Every structure is written in structure tokens, then in C-alpha cells.
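Give me C-alpha cells for this 276-residue protein.
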Amino acid sequence: MTIVKKFFMILMITLNLIGLGYCISDGSEFAHSTEAKAHEYPWQIVLLKRNYAVCSGALINKMWALTTAHCISNIDPSVMTVTLGDYNLVKSEGTEQTVVPDKVYVHPNFNHSTTDSDIALIKFKEPITFTLAIKPIALPSDEQAQVGMYCIVSGWGKRSLVADDRPDILRQAVIPIVSNKECNEPIAYKGEITKRMLCAGYKYGGPDACTGDSGGPLSCLRASRKAKQEWFLAGLVSWGSRCGSPFKFGVYTRVSCFREWIKDTIDNSALTDTPL
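Here you go.
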């Protein structure tokens, strides 16, 4: 058994399969919940529109963050701010840094109807300072996220389908990667899943992302011979159906499909006068 598998087996037992968006299929209140440790995922960011948290995202370097296109495609950057190093949304912990976007780059192939290519880049006006509470996450390399791998989704989204029950403290869930073939079955999403999407969750219902988690990271551990394992960004919370319901897996933007676009956009940003 690999180190990564051992890690996630222990983690699964410890968390007892409880997560941020555990919604019973009849829309009842969530059964259990777990809070992330403070700054356990230091790449987690909060997107605010006029000081109201609307989505999450992931920090990838001192000047850039990733989120989903559907989160920001209709928001004027002038009313948007980004907070890093946050944990409790209603309490100042002294670790937060708030930055103003300089430009927003929505993927040119983003489709509002199908939510395909649901990814966007945010460039900050000023570089942020890395701290213990603020660190970037690596982008995926060639190995991508493998089917059956357990990863972490985190966010401040709703904990119930029937009420606006959004937590103040960052929450997490351990979920397995599911094949696109299984996710496209008639009982699931009937062919709506494209190769640029990634599915994760439990066939018979369980922990899941939910409303308000959009844009947030699906973080996986990369197998490594190094003493310290490295997290990488496998996905961004994109869409789903009835949080945590049987056969309705969470759908994520498959970040590995967009590495070239991310690199090209960042490299060309100094020459780009108008956001994409």
C-alpha cells in the first residue's frame, strides 16, 4: 500500500466520511459535519462582491488565483475583492490579506449553458505575501487525478438543501474521484460530462460540495519520494445536482486540461490590454 493510500485511509477513518456538504437526498438537514483545521488549506481564497462572499478559489502564485468562470463572468471586477488567509468569515484572525483584482480572464471557450471550460484566472493588482496561512497550491502535472484517488474539497458553502445554512468556518470533505464513464451513466448525468470535467463523490450519497462552494479547490496529494507530500489542484467546484444525493456526483473543472491556457495567459498578461 502506498504512502498516499495509507494517508487517505487514516484520514477517511478519522473524518468518518463526514464533510462540508453532506445533504440527505430528501433535502433534510445534513447528518454530520467537520471543520477544517485553521489554515489547513492555505491556498483557499474567498471571492467577495461588495463584501459578500460569493465563491471560493485557489491561489497558484503571488499574483494569480484560479476560480470557475461561472463565479465571475458576470461580476464587474471593480466591485470584487479577494481575501486570502481566511478561516472564520465573521471573525478577524490577523492572518487575512485582502487584495483587489487587476484583471479577470475567463476562458474563451466557457459555455454558460453546458458549463464546459468553467475556469477563470484572477490577476491581483499587487503581489501578496506568503505566510503560514497563505501559500499556493501546485497545478496538476501529467499524472492527473486518478479514478479511486481520495481528495479534499473545501469551502464555506451551504450545509443544507432547504435553508441558507452557510457556515462561518471553513469545512472539508473527503471524496473519491469517479470515472467520467460512471458519471455519464443514465442514472447520473446522462452524457453531460465532458472530458474537461471531473467527477467526485459517493455513488449512494455522502459528503459533497454544495451551493456556495463554487470555484473552490479539489485538492489531492501527489505521490512523491520526498519526505513532505505535495498537494496539487485537481479540480474546481463547478456544478452538481442535489448535494450529496445518490448517483449525483459533484462535478469539477478538470484543471489538468487547462495548464497550457493558464501558462499562456500568465505569460502574456503583461501584453494584454483587455481581459479575455
